[in-house]
Amino acid sequence: MPAEEVRQAAWIKREQVRDRSFVEQFSGKLDLRKAGIKLGVRPNSLTLCCVHDKFFRTMARRPRIEFSGAFYHVIVRGNQRQEIFHDEADCGKYLSLLSGYRERYQFKLFAYTLMSNHVHLLIETGGAPLSKILQGLSQSYTQYYNRRRKTVGHLFQGRYKAILCDRDAYLLALVRYIHLNPVRAGITEEASKYRWSSHRSYIGMEDSGLVSRDEVLKMFSVKKASARDRYMQFVSEGREDGKNGQYYRTVDQRILGGEEFAEEVERVGGKAITLPAKLPGLAIIARVISETSKVTVSDLRGPGATRIQARARRLFALVARETGHRNRTVAEYLRRDETMISKWIREKTEETTRVTTRLLIALK
After folding, report:
1. Is the pLDDT of residue 89 over 80?
2. Chain segment 202-216, per-residue pLDDT in tens
3. What distance lies between CA 346 and its chain's CA centroid?
4. Is residue 18 part of a domain?
5. Distances (CA, A) of 70 to 1, 62, 65, 121
6. Which member of 88, 161, 172, 311 has the lowest number of beta carbons within 10 Å of its beta carbon?
7. Which domain holds residue 291?
8. Are residues 248 and 289 in the same domain?
9. CATH number for the domain including 316?
10. Phi and psi angles of residue 163, each rounded to the nearest 5 degrees, phi first
């Protein structure tokens, strides 16, 4: 048996190490003795690994970063990608439990989508850490599932994925991404026709009070009807994006955001963050924008409102976003309101995207 195949096959939870019969059964199943492979526990490890003469080196899992107000994109999958929702009763039970834990732990839920074998949640924690919320929710649903189907054992994949995100930069994009999941999967042509996501709440088709939709809709307009129209247009514009890998491109395996956000997380969360190569500063971006648009840096940051100046500011905001700068910092540099920066980023066109790409190449 190839060593790599064995290494991939032989991850066992530490709790199972205590059961010697399980270890023997596992050893026999993989025919490890014939392969000349021994079983052993790595010191200070949470797993039992199959080893050949010595322990394989395995990538250590980074500890989760948790603090009050942390904003996460959570993906919970069925064990070995098995189905976790078989019918409406299952979906309804999960949402009922989710509502109960939201009231108990006072976290904000901005979006959710239940698929047959996984769940997407967009959560901002309160006083309780995310791990406590997810542990209670997953255990409660597993108990319900096993009772209903007269089964035993784990339902969910051992370690859920939780990406700590820069809320300023990614809130709207992630709400859209999560709500379009059933459309990307080919389950439905319209997000509004899928019952098991919070999209229907955003457009007024139902109101369970489960999601903090008004906080998001106000980013489009203070008038509810106008906000919904703009939100629906925003979602429609994202239909052709497909599975966007940018929402999984993390810093230090845990963080979605730029260098400034990572540094703030390190300060607030008290965990060391391994940062990527240093990103260009706003002054450097302004200089590149100035050289290509013929708008001086002082005019870029000034009160003028000509068409050329407005276009240069939009490009500046887009490039700054792509290089990891936060909307608040960009707004302060341009001496503009933060909502205006969000609007410029949200309303990017094919033309501004092409120009932004060229500018990013110039910065490199």
Report:
1. yes
2. 999 998 899 999 999
3. 18
4. no
5. 44, 17, 9, 13
6. 88
7. 282-363
8. no
9. 1.10.1750.10
10. -100, 120
The token pair that represents 17 in the structure block: 């190490």
How far is the C-alpha of 215 from the C-alpha of 287, rounded, in Å?
35
Query: Tokens representing 190?
Result: 């319209």
Is residue 121 predicted with pLDDT exceeding 60?
Answer: yes
The pLDDT > 70 percentage for the chain reads 73
Which of the two residues, 64 and 297, has the higher pLDDT score?
297
Asked whether residue 240 falls in the same domain as residue 302, the answer is: no
Please give the model's pTM, rounded to 2 decimal places: 0.62
Note the pLDDT of residue 244: 57
Within a domain: 173: yes
> Which two three-digit tokens encode residue 259?
């260098």
